[in-house]
Amino acid sequence: MKSIRIIRASTVALLLAAITFPALAQKQGGTLTYTYFPEPTAMSTIATTAVPVAIIASKVYESLLEYEGAGMKPLPGLAESWTVSGDRLTYTFKLRKGVTWHDGKPFTSDDVKFSIEKVVTPFHSRGKTYFGEVSAIETPDAHTVVFKLKSPVPYFLRAFQPSESPMMPRHGFSDEEIAGDKIRQAKIMQAPIGTGPFKLKEWRKGSHIILERHPAYWKPGRPYLDQLVLRVLPDGSARAIAVEKGEVDLAPMSALPPSETQRLGKFPNLVASQDGSEGLGPIMWLEVNLREKPLSDVRVRQAISLAIDRVKLVDVIWYGQGKPASGPIVSGNPNHFDKSLKPLEHNPAKANQLLDDAGYKRGADGVRFKLTQNYLPYGEEWVRQGEFIKQELRKVGIAVDTQSLDMGGWLKRIYTDWNYDFTSNFTHNYPDPTIGVQRAFISTNAKRGATFNNSMGYNNPKLDALLGEAAKLEDGPARNKAWAEVQAILRNDLPVIFLMEISYTHVWNKRVHGLITNGVSMYSSWDSVWVD
Amino acid sequence: MRRATVGFVLRRLLQLVPVVLAIATLNFILTKMAPGDAADIVAGQMGHATLEFTQELRREFGLDLPLLEQFLAYMGRLLTLDLGTSLLQQKPVIDLILDSLPATLLLMLTSTVIALGVGIALGVAAARRQGTWIDNLISVSALLVYATPAFWLGLMLIVLFSIQLDLLPSGGMLTIGADLTTFGAVVDVARHLVLPATTLGLFYVAIYARLMRASMLEVYSLDFITTARAKGLSEGVIARTHALRNALLPVITLAGVQVGHLLGGSVLVETVFGWPGLGRLLFDALLQRDLGLLLGILFVSSIVVVLANLAVDLLYGFLDPRISHK
Hints:
The complex is a heterodimer. By secondary structure, chain A is of the alpha+beta class. Chain A has helices at 2-20, 51-60, 109-123, 127-131, 175-179, 236-245, 258-264, 298-307, 310-317, 348-357, 380-395, 407-416, 433-436, 438-441, 461-470, 477-493; strands at 31-35, 65-68, 73-76, 79-84, 90-95, 134-141, 144-149, 198-204, 208-213, 227-231, 250-251, 270-273, 282-288, 322-324, 369-374, 398-403, 422-428, 496-502, 506-509, 512-513, 530-531. In chain A, strand 15, helix 11 (380-395) and strand 16 (398-403) form a beta-alpha-beta unit. Chain A starts with a helix and ends with a strand. Chain B is mostly helical. Chain B has 12 helices and no strands. Chain B has helices at residues 3-33, 38-46, 51-61, 67-79, 93-128, 133-147, 150-164, 182-220, 223-230, 235-273, 278-288, 291-319. The longest helix of chain B has 39 residues, at 182-220. Chain B starts with a helix and ends in a 7-residue tail after the last helix. At the A-B interface, strand 10, helix 6 and helix 12 of A face helix 2, helix 3, helix 5, helix 7 and helix 10 of B.
């Protein structure tokens, strides 16, 4: 992990330099080419919030606010100011005047009301989480929007990110599309009209997407770039070669295999950085089916947790691109991570003792019992991780068979059929644990067919009550205390075996500047990014 | 064209209808047998989807209908040559296929020309020098290339020609955003084409070289070659005018059969080189369980394979006038 720390430190230094000397000759013009795979299937996060879509759609669409720093401090965006009532039930946004859509029409409060009511809340995958408590949206004039809430939502001001609540034009949808609930199939999903700094110029499926600067963008002199190009390269090694050759300037969000990232990070003209994903909080764990023995026994789960050497896992399998997990919330979360938590222990002797105590003695072949393992079908590292887990568990007498499935098969087996023992998985905390953490552990989410929710069948009324409480409390000591309790319970119950905090690694050419600005940097608008 | 040939072509085209429909049925069953569907994939991509959300997607995609109803609707559309809409890209399948088919046909055609040209030349050279070091060198090299995985070979070619020698681009089909003249664009595509076409073609060079050698040796043992030699014709003339044309038939037969295989190979090569063709589209459709798109691609590719075999049958008549199309 040492090399990555050095890279992190140098990235922070570069960032500081960029912030301290903003006039370091930002250059107007030029093209930034990035690569990612798979290719986006749409140009709006309403169609899907998959990473490739979220990256490119956030350059085209904006929301009411912008965010600064890893803690995602809200700043004016399409709304130039806002006020919150004392009871936290009324949010009033004053919209910026003179903002136009890519087709030249003016952006107004009607567009905001339409976007939230008709598009985001019903169709965005987190729409109801963010806006489910909204009872009314009022538009007293063309540049004022008032949100009335039924009960306080502590993370309401974090909802206005381009990838979470993109503002979409009412006139971009036909009446038939709206009346027929065909929002996700609307033409605008492929041919976007946003207010963002870039607009679609060319989309050649299977090859590339070109975005060009929106000349009437509301920020004077922005964006700096003339063009933004996405090159679709399906093979990980080919993506690395394109970065190495300088054909591509940026491979964001772990677009390169970890081995290639480590190799390219040593090049003098390239930067490998793990910053700018704090607001997403990616975390990996082993999801455990709690419905049957022996995994229904907490001692067995604790033994599995003790059997795994997480430091080795991070260093060997993931080339140091992450850190051992301490619980359900990533340590980079500035607000809700319980800083008193120690890393989860690696102690095979204790694991053996727990398994003995639970009544699972070793047989003549040294095996206590057998389990079947599935792994997330995201590439070779996940396969290698499966092999590593298998080796670690064998040391404490648990024999593991590994089963390989493609994505469709994996999703069905884990979330619809619940036909598994344990599987690797990764998920996001998002900017608030009520959005990203609660869903995996609250008992009401143990429903067949719901993806990336409580597949384990975990049901703990005390935890449910704490999660409910934390969802309503205002950010502060009381809420932090509730979340600390949640973390303590989950670390002990282990409905999932927490493995590691994943670090999304971005590799870019040093000719690119200003990429990292907040906790979801690759989902930012990149209006202030410039190239030499 | 002779009447018999026209009749033959028409008969074969009619035979194509049940063959393609049978393939479409099989494809439908196979894709439905795989666990999970596009709604699962999209919901999975969202990273946080409720059961209601997944069911809503399934309803939008028409995946909640009974299987038989889905099948009948699909076949009904197929009979009117309507391939439907891609579930995930929300575009007509036929548009997506037509956008990427030319790139694949160009790749396949170029690699076939390389494979046949080089393979036949090497096969003839080996046969004419049977048992010499040249024969051994060609045979062993062919075996080596045959045993090399295409994706690895592709990456090695990229490392050599793109990174080390900096002669050719590492991937893609054209220089994105370049303002080129027509001639400039042709040259640009040709430069991008060299490595993927060579990668795809080399595997078949090995096959055709081995086959051509064996076929030439067989023809060389026939009486009419002995007669030609007795007439005092030179070995070069015998090879070109007597042996080659007769020895070509098995190679051409194989080339026809290999079209399907070539299409399969293009999935790998297009993936390594980022070539925006049908193979790539197939790969994406498969990963995303985009059933409409997947079935559309398989339908069109089965037509391409059947037509390629028809072309080979017609070529027989040209190569060997004794074969008639009755």
